[in-house]
Write a structure and sequence with these properties.
By secondary structure, this protein is of the alpha+beta class. The chain folds into 2 domains: 20-172, Chloramphenicol Acetyltransferase (2-Layer Sandwich), CATH 3.30.559; 212-446, Chloramphenicol Acetyltransferase (2-Layer Sandwich), CATH 3.30.559.30. Helix content is 31%, strand content 23%. The strands form 4 sheets. A 6-stranded mixed sheet has the order 5-6-7-2-13-12, with helices on both faces. Strands 8-15-14-11 form a 4-stranded mixed sheet, sandwiched between helices. A hairpin with a 3-residue loop joins β6 (131-137) and β7. The chain starts with 19 loop residues before the first strand and ends with a helix.
Length: 449
C-alpha cells in the first residue's frame, strides 16, 4: 500500500483559500487536544553527517508543500468565545529543537517523545501546526522526530511528512520552492456513498450479546489532567517474517493477531475467565475508499475507528484474530466507520466549554477504551545518499478517548509496537505488564523455525 514518495507537491483537490472552518471531525480533535494533548509523532534514525541549518531549510520547503503546515487555529465565533475554530494563515516557520548528547543514549528519542512530544501541546493559536526535534550523539548518529496535532494528521501523515522532510534535507530542491495551493477540503466532504444499514440485532454474531469487558482504570483522572505516556517495543525481522507466514497459514491478518494479543493481555491482567468478552478498538485508514484518491503524502487525518467485541480465548489466539479480522470487514461493509462523524456533525460539542457531557458519555458508553492503531507496511528508505536510515515509526497520543493504546509501524524490516497509556489511570508497571504480555503472545504465535 505504501510506496516511497518523490519530492513533489502532494495532493490535487484543494480549496483556493488559506482559511476555512474546521470540519466536525477536526473540531472534535481540536477540542480534546485542549483538554489533554493529542499529538502524533514520527521518528527515524539517521547515521551520517547532518546540519541543523540544512534541516531548517528542508522544513521550510516542507511547509511550502503543505498548506496545513502554514496555518494556526483561531476560535472565530465572536458571539461564543472559544468556538467556531478556523484555520488561519501564519508565516512562522516550523521550530526545530536541538538535543546534543555527550554520549550515546539508545532510547533518548523515546524519552523525548514520552516526556515532551506527547505531553506538550502544539502552539495552536500562533502556529504552525508542527514542530521538530534533532537528537545528535557523537559519531554522527541522529534521531529526527516530527510532531503534529491529530486534527491535521494521522500516523500515515506524520510518517509521510517525516519522509518528505528527510528527502528534502538530503536532496534540496534547486532554486526557490513554490508554495502549495489552498487548504485541502474537509475530510467529510470526501465520504463515499453509504451502504445500507447493518442487519438488526437478531442477525448479529452471538459474541455481540452479554456484558462487554473494558480496561478498568486504577483511578479516575480528570479529563483536563490526563497525560499520555509511552513504552517502546518492537519485533525484529526474523520474528516478523515468521509471524507474516503464520498469519497467511491461519487465514488472518497481522492486525488481527495484534488486536487479539492486546485483548488477551488486557483480559489476563483483569483476571477474566475464558470466554469473557472484551472490546478492542481498531483505528483504520480510509484513504483508499474516499471519493477521490488520497495519497499518503497528503497531510490530514484520514482515519476512523471500529471496535470488535471478541471472546477471550487464551489458548486460541488465532481464533480471536480471525474473528477480529472478519468483524472489521463486516463493519466496514456496512459503513460503520463513518457513523462517528455523523454523530459529531449533529451532536458534537462546539468548544471545550460545552464538551463535558459529550466526553463523559463517550467515556462511560463508548465502544472501547483500548486499541491498536496499525498503519501497516510503510516504505521508508534505508539508504539515502551517504545516510543510513533505520527505526522509522509513529506514536499517537490518547487524550480523552481511552486509557491504553498502541501504535504499530512495519518498516525497514522491523515492526515497531509503541504502547501508550494515561498516567495514573494505568500505572507504568501495569502498562509494561500488558505490553510485554502482548509481545510474548505474538512472538509465541509466530512459532519457531
Amino acid at each position: 500500500m505504501n510506496t516511497p514518495s518523490a519530492p513533489t507537491n502532494a495532493g490535487t483537490a484543494r480549496h483556493e483559500t488559506t482559511s476555512r472552518e474546521l470540519s466536525p471531525g477536526e473540531r472534535w480533535y481540536w477540542i480534546i487536544d485542549q483538554l489533554s494533548t493529542l499529538n502524533v509523532c514520527a521518528r527515524v534514525r539517521i547515521q551520517g553527517e547532518i546540519s541543523a541549518p540544512a534541516l531548517r531549510t528542508a522544513l521550510r520547503a516542507l511547509q511550502d508543500r503543505h498548506p496545513l503546515l502554514r496555518v494556526a487555529i483561531a476560535a472565530g465565533d465572536p458571539q461564543q468565545p472559544g468556538t467556531g475554530p478556523r484555520f488561519v494563515p501564519t508565516a512562522r516557520p516550523v521550530p526545530l529543537r536541538e538535543v546534543l548528547l555527550a554520549a550515546p543514549e539508545e532510547d533518548r528519542w523515546a524519552g523525548e517523545i514520552d516526556a515532551r512530544e506527547l505531553t506538550d501541546p502544539i502552539d495552536r493559536e500562533s502556529g504552525p501546526l508542527a514542530r521538530a526535534v534533532l537528537i545528535s550523539t557523537p559519531g554522527q548518529t541522529h534521531d529526527l522526530v516530527l510532531t503534529v496535532p491529530h486534527c491535521i494528521a494521522d500516523g500515515t501523515t506524520a510518517l509521510s511528512l517525516l519522509r518528505q522532510w528527510v528527502h528534502l534535507a538530503a536532496q534540496p530542491p534547486a532554486g526557490a520552492g513554490t508554495t502549495g495551493g489552498g487548504l485541502p477540503e474537509p475530510f467529510e466532504a470526501l465520504f463515499p456513498p453509504r451502504p445500507g444499514p447493518r442487519p438488526e440485532a437478531g442477525a448479529q454474531d452471538p459474541q455481540e450479546s452479554g456484558e462487554t469487558g473494558r480496561l478498568r482504570p486504577e483511578r479516575f483522572v480528570p479529563f483536563d489532567q490526563r497525560r499520555t505516556r509511552m513504552l517502546h517495543r518492537s519485533l525484529d525481522g526474523d520474528v516478523l517474517e515468521r509471524l507474516a507466514a503464520a498469519c497467511k497459514r491461519e487465514g488472518t491478518t497481522l492486525h488481527g493477531v495484534l488486536a487479539a494479543a492486546l485483548a488477551c493481555a488486557v483480559a489476563h491482567d483483569a483476571q477474566a475467565a475464558p470466554q469473557a468478552r472484551f472490546a478492542v478498538g481498531s483505528p483504520l485508514s480510509l484513504r483508499d475508499e474516499l471519493r477521490r484518491e488520497v495519497t499518503e503524502d497528503e497531510a490530514g487525518c484520514y482515519v476512523s475507528a471500529l471496535h470488535s467485541v471478541v471472546r477471550y480465548q487464551p489458548e486460541d489466539l488465532w481464533a480471536m484474530a480471525r474473528f477480529v479480522n472478519d468483524d472489521i470487514a463486516a463493519r466496514k461493509k456496512h459503513g460503520e466507520q463513518y457513523e462517528v462523524f455523523d454523530l459529531l456533525a449533529v451532536q458534537g460539542p462546539a468548544g471545550t466549554a460545552d464538551s463535558g457531557p459529550f466526553i463523559r458519555h463517550f467515556e462511560e458508553n463508548g465502544p472501547f477504551n483500548f486499541f491498536v492503531s496499525n498503519i501497516g507496511r510503510f516504505a521508508f528508505p534505508t539508504e539515502l545518499g551517504a545516510w543510513h536510515l533505520s527505526g522509522a515509526q509513529f506514536v499517537g497520543g490518547i487524550s480523552v478517548v481511552g486509557y491504553l493504546g498502541s501504535s504499530v509501524t512495519t518498516s525497514q524490516g522491523r515492526l515497531s509496537w509503541n504502547f501508550t497509556y494515561i498516567e495514573e489511570a494505568v500505572s507504568r508497571q501495569r502498562a509494561e505488564r500488558i505490553a510485554d504480555d502482548s509481545i510474548r503472545r505474538v512472538t509465541a504465535a509466530a512459532g519457531n523455525r
